[in-house]
C-alpha cells in the first residue's frame, strides 16, 4: 500500500504540480520504494527456521527399493472427442463390477481396477482426455504407464488423436490403439490403421510394435482382447514397485462429501498404505482414518498401483499433488507450514515482478515527460508564470526537503507562493509533499525518507502519526504565522550550508 501511495503521490505531483516539486526527485522516490520494500519485507524471503532440517520430501530412487515386486499397470484413455473414451471406460468399469465378489456399487473415485484372466490387474484412470494426463504431468506427477488411444473407425485420425499421440510420445508412454465403433457399418478399420501409420504409429500389422485392437466399446466387442493387449504391454514393461517403506503416491481427485468429509483419491505408487499412516500432499496433510476402494468398500491396505479413497485430510489436496508418507503428525505439520511459506514467498516474488514492471513503465513515461518539458524550457518556469533563473543543480549540493501541511487551501497556497519567490543559490528547497489537513503517518514517512522536516501550519497531528514518530523520529514544526514559518525554514536551510562557505 505504501508503494501505491508513493506512486500515486508521484502521479499527482506530476499532473497537478506539473512536475514542479518532484521533478528532480525521481531517483529519490525509487530509493524510497526500495527502502519501503525492505522495511516492509516485500521481497525478503520469509524466515524459515527449520529450513535446514526439513529439506523437502522427495521420492525414493528405484535403486533403493527394499521389496520390489510386480505391480499393476496404470492406464489412461485418450483420443478425439466423441470417439468413445467415456463409453469404453464405462464398459471396462462395469466388467469390474460384475467381477466384484461383493457386487458393490461402482463409486466414481477417479480410478478403478479391473482383473484380466483372473490374474493381472489393470488400473484405469477414469478422467478421459488429455487435460488430466497433461495437468498431472505438468505437476511432475507422472502416473500413467500406458495410453490407450481410442480412434473411431468411422472418423479415423482426427485433430485430438494427433495431439494425444504427441503427448504420449513426449511423455515416453507406450500407446495401445483401440479402434472403436467397429459395429458401425461405415467403420473402416484398414483406413484407420493407415492413417495411424501416416501419423507415426507403427502398428503391428505393418511390422511395427504398437498393438491395435478393433473394438466396439458400446457393444462390448473385443474388450477382453484389449485388456490382454494391455497385460502383454505391461509384462514387456516389467513394472515393479517397492511394497515396503514409506508410501508415495499422487492425488487423482479430491472431493468434499457432506456426510464423510474431506476425501481424496490417491494412486499408491510405492509402499503399502495402512490405516493411521500420515501423509503430506502439497500443502495439506492427513492421518488416514478410513480407506475405501473403487467399489466403496472399506479396505485396510493399499499396495502399489491401487487407487484408494482416503478420509482424514485437514485440507483438501489438489489433483496432481505428489503424496508422501511421513513419520509423525509434527513432521507433517512442519512440512506443510514450510511449503505454505515457500508458496507465499513465490507469490510475493511474482507480485514484485508486477510492481517492478509497473515502476519501470512509470519511470519510462516519466523520463519522456521530463525530456519533453526540458525541451520546452519548462524548468525555467515557476509555479505561476515564468521564472527568471533556472534551478541550480544541487543534486550533490545541500538541499532541504520539507513537507508542508496547512489548515486550509489558502494558507498552503500562500506558503508555497512565498517559497516560490524565495531563492537561495546555495541551498535547494524541495517541497516533497504538501496538503491540507493534519499531519499524517505518510507525511512523517516521507519526511523521514527524504531526511526532511514537516511544517505544519495551524494544524494538528493525527494520533497514529504520533505513534509513527516514536519509531521514526522526525521533526515536525508547528506555526500559526506564515512569515515565522518561512523564517524558520530559511534558517534551517542556512544550517545545511557548509560552515566555511
Ligand atoms: P468421448 O467423447 O470420447 O468420451 O465419447 P463417448 O464415449 O461419449 O461416445 C460418443 C458417442 O459415440 C456416444 O453417442 C456413444 O454412444 C458412441 N459410441 C461410443 N462407442 C461406440 C461404439 O463402439 N459403437 C457405436 N456405434 N457408438 C459408440
From TrEMBL:
The protein's job, in short, is: One of the essential components for the initiation of protein synthesis. Protects formylmethionyl-tRNA from spontaneous hydrolysis and promotes its binding to the 30S ribosomal subunits. Also involved in the hydrolysis of GTP during the formation of the 70S ribosomal complex.
- What protein name applies here? Translation initiation factor IF-2, mitochondrial
* One GO CC term, this protein: mitochondrion
Provide any one GO MF term from the record: translation initiation factor activity
Q: Which family does it belong to?
A: Belongs to the TRAFAC class translation factor GTPase superfamily. Classic translation factor GTPase family. IF-2 subfamily.
Q: Which UniProt keywords apply?
A: GTP-binding, Initiation factor, Mitochondrion, Nucleotide-binding, Protein biosynthesis, Transit peptide
Q: What is its main location?
A: mitochondrion
Where does the UniProt annotation locate this protein? Mitochondrion
Annotated Tr-type G domain residues: 70-240
Amino acid at each position: 500500500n505504501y508503494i501505491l501511495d508513493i506512486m500515486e503521490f508521484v502521479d499527482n505531483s506530476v499532473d497537478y504540480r506539473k512536475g514542479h516539486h518532484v521533478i528532480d526527485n525521481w531517483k529519490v522516490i525509487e530509493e524510497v520504494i526500495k527502502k519501503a520494500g525492505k522495511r516492509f519485507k516485500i521481497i525478503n524471503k520469509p524466515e524459515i527456521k527449520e529450513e535446514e532440517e526439513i529439506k523437502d520430501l522427495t521420492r525414493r530412487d528405484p535403486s533403493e527399493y527394499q521389496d520390489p515386486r510386480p505391480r499393476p499397470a496404470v492406464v489412461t484413455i485418450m483420443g478425439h472427442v466423441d470417439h468413445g473414451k467415456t463409453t469404453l471406460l464405462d464398459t471396462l468399469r462395469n466388467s469390474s463390477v460384475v467381477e466384484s465378489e461383493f457386487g458393490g456399487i461402482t463409486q466414481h473415485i477417479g480410478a478403478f481396477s479391473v482383473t484380466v484372466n483372473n490374474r493381472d490387474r489393470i488400473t484405469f484412470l477414469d478422467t478421459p482426455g488429455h487435460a488430466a494426463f497433461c495437468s498431472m504431468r505438468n505437476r511432475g506427477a507422472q502416473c500413467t504407464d500406458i495410453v490407450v488411444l481410442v480412434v473411431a473407425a468411422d472418423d479415423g485420425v482426427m485433430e485430438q488423436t494427433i495431439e494425444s499421440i504427441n503427448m504420449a510420445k513426449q511423455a515416453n508412454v507406450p500407446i495401445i490403439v483401440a479402434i472403436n465403433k467397429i459395429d458401425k457399418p461405415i467403420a473402416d478399420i484398414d483406413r484407420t490403421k493407415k492413417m495411424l501409420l501416416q501419423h507415426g504409429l507403427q502398428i503391428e500389422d505393418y511390422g511395427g510394435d504398437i498393438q491395435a485392437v478393433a473394438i466396439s466399446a458400446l457393444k462390448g466387442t473385443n474388450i477382453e482382447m484389449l485388456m490382454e493387449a494391455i497385460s502383454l504391454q505391461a509384462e514387456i514393461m516389467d513394472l515393479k514397485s517397492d511394497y515396503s517403506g514409506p508410501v508415495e503416491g499422487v492425488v487423482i481427485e479430491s472431493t468434499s462429501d457432506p456426510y464423510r468429509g474431506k476425501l481424496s483419491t490417491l494412486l499408491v505408487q510405492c509402499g503399502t498404505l495402512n490405516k493411521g499412516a500420515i501423509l503430506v500432499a502439497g500443502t495439506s496433510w492427513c492421518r488416514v482414518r478410513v480407506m475405501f476402494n473403487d467399489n466403496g468398500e472399506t479396505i485396510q491396505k493399499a499396495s502399489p498401483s491401487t487407487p484408494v479413497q482416503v478420509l482424514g485430510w485437514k485440507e483438501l489436496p489438489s489433483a496432481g499433488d505428489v503424496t508422501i508418507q511421513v513419520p509423525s503428525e509434527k513432521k507433517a505439520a512442519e512440512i506443510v507450514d514450510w511449503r505454505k511459506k515457500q508458496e507465499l514467498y513465490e507469490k510475493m516474488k511474482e507480485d514484485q515482478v508486477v510492481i517492478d514492471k509497473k515502476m519501470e513503465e512509470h519511470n519510462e513515461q516519466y523520463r519522456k515527460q521530463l525530456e519533453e518539458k526540458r525541451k520546452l524550457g519548462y524548468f525555467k518556469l515557476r509555479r505561476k508564470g515564468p521564472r527568471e533563473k533556472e534551478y541550480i543543480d544541487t543534486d550533490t549540493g545541500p538541499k532541504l526537503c520539507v513537507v508542508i501541511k496547512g489548515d486550509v487551501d489558502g494558507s498552503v497556497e500562500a506558503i508555497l507562493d512565498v517559497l516560490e519567490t524565495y531563492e537561495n543559490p546555495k541551498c535547494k528547497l524541495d517541497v516533497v509533499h504538501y496538503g491540507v489537513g493534519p499531519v499524517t503517518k505518510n507525511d512523517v514517512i516521507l519526511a523521514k525518507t527524504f531526511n526532511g522536516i514537516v511544517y505544519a501550519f495551524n494544524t494538528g497531528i493525527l494520533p497514529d502519526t504520533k505513534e509513527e514518530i516514536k519509531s521514526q523520529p522526525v521533526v515536525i514544526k508547528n506555526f500559526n504565522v506564515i512569515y515565522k514559518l518561512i523564517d524558520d525554514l530559511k534558517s534551517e536551510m542556512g544550517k545545511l550550508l557548509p560552515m566555511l562557505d
